[in-house]
Structure to design on (101 residues):
């Protein structure tokens, strides 16, 4: 029952949910969660192709780099959202255009 198609289907569902979250949400935290879902779907693809495609450890190494990048992205993005909240008292990303002034 363990096949590449199962992992790809789960990854496609996660990617779709993440993309929907990024496109439709106005809350900065919800957008970050959507981005994390997209990155996790990429990790599932890397690991699945490494297991079923015979890539040995290269898929796991790429997944590790994506996890490190996601941690750095989350730290920087949360710092930006906290700064927006301190200046505007909201985490609505549509109102972040006021920072240009």
């Amino acid at each position: 029952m363990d096949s590449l198609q199962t992992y790809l289907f789960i990854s496609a569902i996660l990617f779709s949910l993440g993309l929907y979250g990024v496109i439709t949400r106005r809350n900065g935290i919800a957008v970050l969660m959507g981005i994390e879902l997209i990155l996790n779907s990429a990790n599932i693809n890397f690991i699945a192709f490494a297991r079923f495609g015979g890539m040995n450890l290269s898929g796991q190494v790429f997944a590790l780099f994506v996890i490190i990048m996601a941690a750095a992205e989350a730290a920087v993005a949360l710092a930006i959202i906290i700064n927006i909240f301190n200046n505007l008292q909201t985490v609505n990303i549509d109102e972040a255009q006021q920072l240009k002034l």
